[in-house]
Amino acid sequence: MTPGPRSRTARADPVAGALSGMPDGVRGDVRVIERTWTTIRFANGRIHQPHFERSTHVSFRVADGQRLGTATSVDDTAAGLVSVRDSARSLARIAPAEKKFPGFPSGSGRDRTPVDFSDSTAELSPEKATQIAEEVLAAAREGAPGARIAGVVIVGSERRRVANSSGLDRTDAFSSAQASVLVDRPDRDPPVSGWSEGGHWDHRRLDAARLGTEAAERMARSDPEPVEPGEYAVVLRGPAMAEALTFLANLGFAGLGELEGWSCLRRFRGRRVAPESVHLVDDPRSSATIPFAIDQEGMWTHRFPLLDHGIAGPAVTDLVTAGRLGRAPTGHALPPEAPWGAFGAEPVRLILAPGSASEEELIRTVRRGLLVTRFHYVRIVDLGRGIITGMTRDGTYRIENGEIAAPVRNLRFTESLLTLLKGILLLGKETRAYPLERAVSTVTTPSAAVKSFRFTSATLF
Amino acid sequence: MEDLVRTALAVAEAAGVRYADARVVSPARTLHYDVRNGQAQALTDARSESVGVRVRTDRAWGFAGTTELTPAAVRQTARVAIRLARAAGTSVDAKLVVTEEGTARDGRYATPLAQDPFDVPGEEIVRLLRGAEARLHATREVKSGNASFQAWEETKWFGSTEGASYTSRIVSVGAGVSATAIRGSNVQRRSGPTSFGGDYHQAGFEYIEGLRLSDRAEVVGREASALLDAPACPTGSTTLVLGSDQLALQVHESVGHAVELDRIQGSEAGFAGTSWVASSGIGTLRYGSDAMNVVADATEPGGLGTFGWDDEGVPGQRTPIIERGTLVGALSSRESAAELGLARSGGTMRAGGGDRSPLVRMTNVDLLPGDHSLAELLTGVREGVYVETNRSWSIDDKRLNFQFGCEVGRRIVKGELGELVRNPIYAGMGPTFWSSMDAVGDASTWHLWGVPNCGKGQPVQIARVGHGAPIARFRDVAVRGGG
């Protein structure tokens, strides 16, 4: 469980001291973040880049009247906090006025129930993290003897305190364990590969061996065939769905896109953009994700509908974006400092409700199409139309008459997220959390069968 | 700071590891000012300090980093690095081998600066950005204007158990403007001098003044609006002339990353990917046409990838990569070079901060200029497309199949630049594409660009790298408009 709210006085507490030591008309908020992460990378079948990092990050934002400036440091001592506050104030004095800034929220209101947190994950030793990597390696070796194996195990935690000069003072923490594994045969022509990944807030519930086995199973045993680019029905496995939904979070639901008019969902709020079975929420408090309790402005997180049974919901906001839009903040603040501050608010704990189909049943819905395990190097092609491009990777198969027919060489897709959403036919019953590195964002999603997906070129492997 | 380096190395030596190095970065500082539509989207002054300790046993590496710069924390960090290396080495049979190097002793490197950007009053910079941003709104259809400035400082102390030591202070700056014009779902963005926040250089504030942001802004705003009415880029196989800024990114993605020896050897397979290039191809592989000459040059004045020594203490150097279309070299480290049987590292190991482990990174990977003026590049093109300024970039995990979108295109008709076209996209396969390059622009078309956001590694780290590129012409390239 997360540590409970702390009781502090300005004299004993450097954060409270720095906040209370500002002149009239100057207010601020501060984030103090302690991070501990162990990253065990492996490649060519052996652990290659084990990495441990313990860091402190202080982010102080000052509102001098309506002018905002932010400074950051790694010094959470009393002198350090005063110094970073003064740097932020220096910037605020030269900033253009943020005329609609609503001010900092008060800390009034009932505390929410804590979210799930694993002390043993947060405190996992480097040796134990190494053991998890060895489990992944062993399972992958057993599943694919002679193959090359690469991947990573990332375990750790982030403890956050957010306080402001309106009396808000909240603490929070999240723990995360994640792993990914690539099994490949570069000696074959064309080479073949398989992939698996997953994460959990509790390392004891990260099934490392299963990930190794799954990646091995997904590697093609026969030579991949070339396939012509074109429109295909697809079954997108979890990693591919997670990538697409991550882009939807930005292109469809970021407050800045709404404000500036480039959001691909801006013209569709309150309208159906996906079948009723598609229910997408941002729910940072759910045990199905890597949970956290407060956003970077200290607002309590909550379940927020993004696609309410297929109907497009509103964009998310932080204090600045909400002020400019004339709305209430939704509790989706990223850190105010650049580069995050330049992006505005985004949902970072997406959960797509599962369906009831097994992977075999998803495949059975496709008469002629492709099974895609994972996307690679996805980028935005057209903001307004929500078009993205990327490659398939690490396990792409041709589906004929509802069955996997053969592995195929990888293809480039160029497709609108709106087309993808509209075309979802069926959702898988198994759902899994896919955290980005250190759970900066996490998508929990099943696999999906999609009616039509456009592939625009092919590669050689 | 030297004491902290010595403290870390003493712990490692006492533990009997084969090798250790330590880096203290203090300060690392970033100024990032971002003005949007007359308001401050983010005005940030970010300072940090950190120390990283890397050790090598007979069989494995271990790395640990912290932001706490006290002797006790540094000793603890060094012990964790040793534990990691020992844990990793238990299941490894093969011994780690690295090249022998004549490393730096009391080396000193500093960016030459006419005007230190951290001494420039913030008011002056914000005034510059606000003035430029206001001029972006040349028409009512420009819904968003953005002017940004960044400056970085990294002061570093390095030492190793082999006796290497150096200090460096690297300062880089960059700035740019962009305008977004919107009509319904038609969203057009135009940037200057290029996208991703503009142009960057290892230099002082004098470089920002030379960018003349305010003068560029109105042109950028008008072009963004004009693109709303421009026809879509024609579709088909045609002659493509790439502007210098787009060609710089093409080099980055389809040459720079492909010749990183750690990728070639599989060390990055699980995340960034591998390469279509095999290490056995160095010396013989045809990468492109005879007009293609590429170097990796860490000694180039002003480059974001310029430094005195890398994060293994190996001197920055100029390495030929491609000569007359043939692959002749790669980007390497002490370990990857030794694995290939090379006598020396190419000196490209860099870390994205004190608390990150160094990786093979690009330095300044340049496509060298040829001997054609812009007019000569266009002459003889009966029909084609000229494109510049990247807006979308994607490439497969072996760096073969790529697709790039650009902010703007112009038709080339009978050797002349013609009407504006919107949403140009071109795609291809690396070796085919580079083999189709039949003419390369001369020095007047060449510019050393900075790429400030190259991501690699786990935990991910951001490197600042440079790319010098001219304008160049490619035949029979698949081009299309829209998505």
Helix/strand layout:
The complex is a heterodimer of chains A (461) and B (483).
Chain A: H1 14-20, E1 26-43, E2 46-64, E3 67-73, H2 78-94, H3 119-122, H4 126-143, E4 148-164, E5 169-185, E6 192-200, H5 208-218, E7 230-236, H6 238-253, H7 255-260, E8 280-282, E9 304-308, E10 311-312, H8 319-325, H9 340-343, E11 349-352, H10 359-364, E12 368-382, E13 387-400, E14 403-407, E15 411-416, H11 417-422, E16 424-427, E17 432-435, E18 442-445, E19 448-458
Parallel strand pairs in A: 7-12, 11-18
Antiparallel strand pairs in A: 1-2, 1-4, 2-3, 4-5, 5-6, 7-19, 8-9, 8-11, 9-10, 12-13, 13-14, 13-15, 15-19, 16-19, 17-18
Chain B: H1 2-15, E1 19-36, E2 39-56, E3 61-66, H2 71-89, E4 107-110, H3 122-136, E5 142-160, E6 165-183, E7 186-192, E8 199-201, H4 205-211, H5 213-229, E9 236-242, H6 244-256, H7 261-264, E10 294-297, E11 318-323, E12 326-327, H8 334-340, E13 349-350, E14 359-360, E15 365-367, H9 374-378, E16 383-395, E17 401-413, E18 416-421, E19 424-429, H10 430-435, E20 437-440, E21 447-456, E22 461-469, E23 472-481
Parallel strand pairs in B: 4-6, 9-16
Antiparallel strand pairs in B: 1-2, 1-5, 2-3, 5-6, 6-7, 6-8, 9-23, 10-11, 10-15, 11-12, 13-14, 16-17, 17-18, 17-19, 19-23, 20-23, 21-22
Helix pairs in contact in B: 1-2, 3-5
